[in-house]
Amino acid sequence: MSTNAVSGPPGTTSPAVPPGDQQQAAGWYSSMPVRQAAVIVLAGALWWYLATVTPPDSVPSPARTFGELATLLGTDAVWTAVAQTATTWLIGIAACITVGVPLGLLIGSSRRATDSTRLTIDFVRNIPPVALVPVGLLLWGPTRNMVLLLVISGTIWPIVIQSSYAARQTEPQLRDFALVFQLGRRWWLTHIFLPGVTPFVMTGLRVAATICLLLTVTGELFGGAPGVGTQIQNAQVGNDNPQMYAYVVVAALLGLLVNSLIWAAQRRLLKWHPSFRRRA
Amino acid sequence: MMRTARRWLYVSAIELWLPVLLAAAWWFASRDSASAYFPALRDILTSFRLDWLSSAGAQNLRPSLTVLAAGFGSAVVVGVAVGAVLGLNRGFERATRPLLELLRAVPGVALLPVFIALIGIGTDMKILLVASGAVWPILLNTIDGVRSTEPLLIDMAVSYGMGGGRRLRSIILPAAAPQIFAGARTALAISVIIMVVGETVGAQGGIGYFLLAAQRSFQITDMWATIIALGVLGYLLNLLFRLIEAVVLRWHRLYQARLGGPRR
């Protein structure tokens, strides 16, 4: 490694420079974005290879898949499906947050409430949410309501549980501090309690957001409600493999979008938190 | 002795009143139910006994548990192995991170049609489907766990001449274990979901197949009985998981207790 030559005159290599930064200065070919792109290209090549060794038409090549995707993106069908899936996801996560966070905080604030609900929550959250798809189908048929039943019943528990942990973790010293200075209940709530629980709640939300999308697509695919999941299923039934792969890519892009959305929200809400301060 | 008995009684009373109340409410509210979709709990429990606490139930459970055990098991093995490799090679991990995020973002169930087209409808397909959905939380948590190993411990192991394999087995993996278990717990819940969905295609039995068949033929009490069976299965799996976790991480709890003093 010739990092010394790059990072400064000999003898002045300061130990303050973290090794990661020195590596990045070593040359364009070893810079991280280039390597990351190389890994993705490599994975694409592997996909291409798989497409050539498998029986024709069972695995479409990346070029065919993305070609199909490009054609699809020009049609209304894909945008309608994306909008339907995104709307279901949004309603689901919003309902779970508005109900789950206050419920979890309330449960976690009282020892008695925690003990009373422990067994019930432990049982209910372990019921696989897909078990409720038939109930939803009976009640509403293949519609958004059916998917929402599945989505909410699976997404709310990580939020409730994480929020109740959050409420239990609040520093008793801070509570005493507010009491001693007679800062009032409302001040304590907005300045101490809520900022204190936010990091924990956000962790729960991150998990919940991913589960929520998984369940939305599952409900569509399994129950036949309109959305990206149904499009994947239809393409498979119609034996249109390139289209099926293109819709799976659409589902993955939605997943990426959800992840980055949560990441951005977390960064915004937790600017003050030590784990984010260093990044600034 | 008397005090522990009383304490035990208090704890079970406060933990049990709500489930008992809810079950009783369901029982009495549905007692004379004329609704076709919400039959009496009594009838559901009868169906539960006939469908699931019988040899026919065992026959329907076997394929499900096989898929679950093989799929979740391989997810743990692959997730921990790949996660350890990536966690130990910082540059490698950063280079593969975008690809991992991309793959992780694929909702596991969306791969069902892909796997059907590739491998066909069979047990292998279902196992692969479960494994490919469950591996991500384990993999990502292993990377984080391995990376947060106390560097002092590793330096000390190196200076004592401990080899790489030994270091991994007796220092790095135990240090990462709490986080690996947290990921595995999420993965277990995901495994059950994917298993049920995977079983709804083809006709090879299993809980998911039975559930959908009951709904399609309007055997509503059987459907509710299967939902209860899934709940019990999920609860028992979680219990088993917690048991294994408590045994494997016993040292961790003791260590934490010594470090932080008695927790609230």
Key features of this structure:
heterodimer, A: 280 residues, mainly alpha, MetI-like fold, 13 helices, 0% strand, globular, B: 264 residues, 11 helices, 83% helix, flat
Word description of this protein:
The complex is a heterodimer of chains A (280) and B (264). Chain A is mainly α and 280 residues long. Chain A has one domain (71-270): Orthogonal Bundle (MetI-like fold), CATH 1.10.3720. Chain A is built from 13 helices and no strands. Chain A has helices spanning 3-7, 19-24, 32-53, 62-73, 76-109, 111-124, 133-140, 144-168, 172-180, 185-223, 228-237, 241-269, 274-277. In chain A, helix 10 runs parallel beside helix 11 (228-237) and helix 11 runs antiparallel to helix 12. Chain A starts with a helix and ends with a helix. In chain A, 36% of the residues are buried. Chain B is mostly helical and 264 residues long. Chain B has one domain (40-260): Orthogonal Bundle (MetI-like fold). Helix content of chain B is 83%, strand content 0%. Chain B has helices at 2-29, 41-52, 55-88, 90-104, 111-119, 123-147, 151-159, 164-199, 207-216, 220-248, 250-260. In chain B, helix 2 packs across helix 10, helix 3 (55-88) packs across helix 8 (164-199) and helix 6 (123-147) packs antiparallel against helix 8 (164-199). Chain B is flat, with a radius of gyration of 23 Å. The model of chain B has no long low-confidence stretch (mean pLDDT 85). Classes of the chains: A mainly alpha (280), B mainly alpha (264). Chains A and B meet through helix 3, helix 6, helix 7, helix 10 and helix 11 of A and helix 1, helix 4, helix 5, helix 8 and helix 9 of B.
